[in-house]
Amino acid sequence: MALxxxxxxxxxxxxxxxxxxxxxxxxRGRPVYLNFFPAAFSPVCTDWFTGIGADGGPYxxxxxxxxxxxxxxxxxxxxxxxxxxxxxxxxxxxPRGAVATLYDAYIEDFGVSGRATYVIDADGVIVDxxxxxxxxxxxxxxxxxxxxxxxA
Length: 152
Prior knowledge:
Layout: E1 13-16, E2 21-23, E3 32-36, H1 43-54, E4 63-68, H2 72-82, E5 88-91, H3 98-102, E6 106-107, E7 112-113, E8 115-120, E9 126-132, H4 140-151
Parallel strand pairs: 3-4, 4-5
Antiparallel strand pairs: 1-2, 1-5, 3-8, 6-7, 8-9
């Protein structure tokens, strides 16, 4: 079960694909589009992030974050394979899935993050969440509409 809308998003710090430590709260003051995903280079994840990269307009002004249990080097290779994409990829590798667990998005039986997207406003409050089966994609239209309200 996903975290509830209207609650403060739990803060966390993870290593980014570039090796830098990134903390969620450092993005306060602008909306965050937080995506938990199972695996870099998987077909559904590749399509999801390719879509974000192809149409950056709806995400303008927001910080887009992708979190998986992949190591940072895999995430860096994934980001490079996607091309010029403005997504901050973070590794939830050690301890494995700790942040995904915090966000009720970890699938213990498979050792991967599930697919969950959180829209977080500039004050750090969850305004929308869509958690779906790992082979499905979240409701993009609804999530983007929620993101737009954060920037209004």
